[in-house]
Specification:
With about 250 residues, this protein is an alpha/beta fold. The protein is about 45% helix and about 15% strand. It is built from 9 helices and 8 strands. Strands 3-2-1-4-5-6-7-8 form an 8-stranded mixed sheet, sandwiched between helices. Helix 2 links the parallel strand 4 and strand 5. The longest helix has about 30 residues. Bound molecules: NADP nicotinamide-adenine-dinucleotide phosphate. NADP nicotinamide-adenine-dinucleotide phosphate (NAP) binds next to helix 1 and helix 2.
Amino acid sequence: MLKVVIIGSGNVAQHLIKAFQSSDKTVLAGVYARNPEKLFNIIDKRLITNNLNTLPEADVYILSVSDDAIAEVSAQLPFNDRLVVHTSGSTGIEVINNKNRRGVFYPLQTFSKNKEVDFKQIPLCLESDNVKDYEILEQLSSCISNLVYNINSLQRQALHVAAVFVNNFTNHLYEIGSEICLENNIPFAILKPLIKETADKIDTLTPLEAQTGPARRRDVTTIQRHLDFIKDENQKAIYTLLTKSIQEKNG
Ligand SMILES: NC(=O)c1ccc[n+]([C@@H]2O[C@H](COP(=O)([O-])OP(=O)(O)OC[C@H]3O[C@@H](n4cnc5c(N)ncnc54)[C@H](OP(=O)(O)O)[C@@H]3O)[C@@H](O)[C@H]2O)c1
């Protein structure tokens, strides 16, 4: 059985801890947290340390700290030639200190501590400096997820940009929709079936095929009516930019 150590106590670290704890094919050998009390409700206290020098030996060390701390924390690890991976979408593999063997274990999902996820359905994007370590990461990943991908640093950067468009920007548009509802005494819940159907549609159609609405139809009267209705200049600018982009993509 592969032994794994998690370094970090944030959103991703907590979900990884739960995933590895519930797998009967891996051993969670230990966890490092600057503030151990953050993990007291999810893991046996005896497995947590706030001293890197007392970390147990493991096959893989997963550094799940803020992107800016990866270089610093990996340099502080008190051992050499072990497999150390980070979980960042936008950080190159080379940021990990090269005294250890390096890799990436990037879970492509949005994580918040209090929102449960089914790790089996989360794509894990793997990268390593050598084939043998890739095989270890592949074996480890398959214990907690059914979706494992070989993605290099350049591809991961592209994937992260794509993810910002489909996740963060879409969620920002939900916020705008929610504000417009609130200002007009409409419950935001009324839009939820539409939001769900929009996401479901791309299981069977490409995003280009799935596009509908006034921009796609080039319904200029409706577009102008919407622009007249919107008073917020920022919302107006976003509406105009997205309308133009949809029209360009749809010829
Ligand atoms: N959240 C997501 O949706 C998501 C998805 C995929 C990948 N990721 C990646 O996963 C990694 C962790 O993200 P997260 O969302 O879990 O972040 P987070 O919730 O903000 O947690 C960051 C963790 O890093 C620790 N940390 C920060 N600086 C440190 C330092 N100098 N020394 C030791 N520990 C330090 C923090 O410790 P304290 O709690 O003590 O401050 C905390 O445990 C990042 O690389 C991120 O890009 C995030």
